Each structure stands twice: as C-alpha cells, then as structure tokens.
Amino acid sequence: MDNTKDIFLKLFGKQIKQLRVEKKLSLRELSIRCNIDYSDISKIEKGKRNIQLSTLLELAKGLEVHPKELLNIKYK
Amino acid sequence: MDNTKDIFLKLFGKQIKQLRVEKKLSLRELSIRCNIDYSDISKIEKGKRNIQLSTLLELAKGLEVHPKELLNIKYK
DNA sequence: AAATTTGTGGGTAAAAAAACCCACATTTGA
DNA sequence: TCAAATGTGGGTTTTTTTACCCACAAATTT
Predict the structure, then answer these.
(1) Of A57, B10, B26, B63, which residue is most buried, by most CB within 10 angstroms?
(2) Are the CB atoms for A12 and A73 separated by under 8 Å?
(3) B52, A50: Cβ pair inside 8 Å?
(4) Please, what's the largest Cα pairwise distance for chain B?
C-alpha cells in the first residue's frame, strides 16, 4: 500500500551506509560516535527503521555532515 | 543537557512554518494534504515534536518539496 | 589455523510518537 | 457586527521507536 515510505527508508539507509563506508567506519565505530547501538544502525541501513529526527541528528554528528546530507537521496 | 536536539527541533519547525506560509497554506489546509492532524502540525512547527522520517516525508509531499528541503536549516 | 572483526537478526522493557479528538481565544472578512 | 477561519494546547489509546542485549556466520587479520 504505502510503499513510498519503504522506498524512502531504503534510500535513506543506503545513504547512511554510503557515508559510513566513505569514511571507512565500521558499524561498531560509528556506533560509538553516535551513541546508537551498532545492531540498530545495521537495521537503519537496511531500511528497517523509521527513525526520529533526534536519531537522524545523532547520525549526522557521528558522520560529521550536515543533517540534510543524510537526505541527499534520489527521491522522486 | 542535550539542548542541541531541542535547538534542532525548533529550527526544523521554523522551516516547516516558513514553507507553509510561503505557500499560503493554513494548518488545516496542509493537514489535509499531509494526512497529519492540524494540531500536530502546530506542535511540530513549535519544535515540540520529534517526528519520524515517515512524517517528514508526508510533510514534504504536502509542501511539494524534496524532503531535504525541510532540513535546509542553519544548524552548526 | 586460530583469533578477531564485521554485519545481521532476534528479543525485551520503557519511552515516545502517531493518530485521533475537543475546547478556546483571537484574527479575518463578509 | 457576526460568522468563519486560524493557531494553540490539553488529553487519550495504539503503535512504534529507542536502547539495550545476545548469538551467529562470514570475512579479515595475525
């Protein structure tokens, strides 16, 4: 039904992973920078989590980018 | 303590309001486009809500902008 | 070959958003 | 002047994230 949400979450996850790999960080390394459990970051990257703005902010901090970078995805 | 979150949510809310007013929409009009209750949008604009990505997506749809536009804020 | 690192997935309790509703004061405009 | 529209805030229930933990297979390193 509402697959635009799922598509969006998948693209978002891809972007997180791309930025993380770009910076040569493992899930556990990023986890420490973000105060987010590594297994949860894994789920975010897989598009399995519909995170809140505060979590997006933590990820941006850990990845050292402006929050809007995380939404720099080809959506529509 | 963690006021960066609150600052961020306030700036985010301001951006939503700015885009909404720019498009000359009332809360109730935007509400219909977003399927989000108008009173909840009011709270979001006031920085009182830590919304999820799916809600951000709905707002972007209703405002007819790319999701990352909503994070186009002066944050750090 | 053995040890370590890495990504993934399943599970839990607590906290919070989502999705509603309604009331009220103020502004707008017919 | 009076009705309609607008923004704000309080409240409730359901659903979901958050914030943890642990186990395991596969890849990597030593």
Answers:
(1) A57
(2) yes
(3) yes
(4) 37
Residue range B19-68, pLDDT digits in tens? 999 999 999 999 999 999 999 999 999 999 999 999 999 999 999 999 99
Distance from CA of B55 to the nearest CA of A (A): 9
* Contact yes or no for B53 and A57 at CB 8 A: no
pLDDT in tens, A54-73: 999 999 999 999 999 999 99
A 13-42 near B (Cβ less than 8 A) = none
- Give the domain ranges of chain B: 3-71
What integer pLDDT is reported at residue B2 of this predicted model? 65
Sorted by sequence, the CB contacts under 8 Å of residue A42 that are 6+ apart come out as A27
- CA angle, residues A75, B4, B8, in degrees to nearest 5: 40
pTM over 0.85: yes
Residue B61: closest C-alpha in chain A: A76
Dihedral (C-alpha) B52, B9, B49, A75: value to the nearest 10 degrees?
-30
